[in-house]
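writing this on my phone so excuse typos. first protein, seq and then structure
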Amino acid sequence: MFKAFRLAGAAAMLGFFAAEAQAFELTGAWATHTDLCSQMFTKKDGRVAYTELSDLFGSGFIIDGDRITGKAATCTIKSKKQEGNNLELAAACASSIMTQDVKFNLKIIDDNTIARSFPEISGMSINYSRCGKL
């Protein structure tokens, strides 16, 4: 009987750690102003895409799996490290004129809000909100 309690306790602890280890879900369209999401993003062939004049309505990006698509560049996430509400990302990015490795941090404010900052630029942080259904 004691062995059964130990097994149940171990299973409960594994469940606790599995819940703690869940990564924050980044997939979706993110914008600096959620009231302008419909003017920045649209659905095209079943996928989220930028509208033709999205530049006029603020800053944003689209994350789909390990790909981040901005208006001027596309990045592939090479690594993610989450500690609590902080998420460190390293990505390989390419624009029409260059490629670059980029590191940036995301602070998870809530399920639909993040703050992006770059380690090389102290004090500069921009909040982004997840756009709802498009």
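second protein below, same order as before
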Amino acid sequence: MPAVHRLAVRVRYPEADPMGRLHHSVHLVYFEMGRTELLRERGLSYREMEAQGRYIAIAEVRCRYRAAAMYDEELIVETWVEEVRGARVEFGNRIVREDGGGRTVLAEARITGALVGLDGRPMRFTAEEIALLARASQSSSGPSTSTDGAAP
């Protein structure tokens, strides 16, 4: 069962549409934030990968919007690794609102990335990268991130 990385975010005013609801495009930004922090937690700095000429290019996004989030609400972005194979990595993502002991799923996504070089050609993940991506989450500190071992 994959380990889930959790990142707390608050809907900021410029991310809301005129009705005060989180704009659908911002979900992708939140998913990106979740992926970046999951990589960092696993010991993979995306900045260092880029410095080495290794980039995760997003090849596919499948997102299902289930409920609206409103301006100033605190949300949790959940991210986990579904699969790593060759040059491909698939992430699972979820945005939830925790309210009064329950939780509401606002959006769910599967995002597929391809590891590519500066020339845009696919590169295989190293054995070390695969091991780091596949491992269980480590505990992290700080108010904005936390992890749990719960299955998605």
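Residues 137-152 have pLDDT under 50 and may be disordered. thats all i got for now
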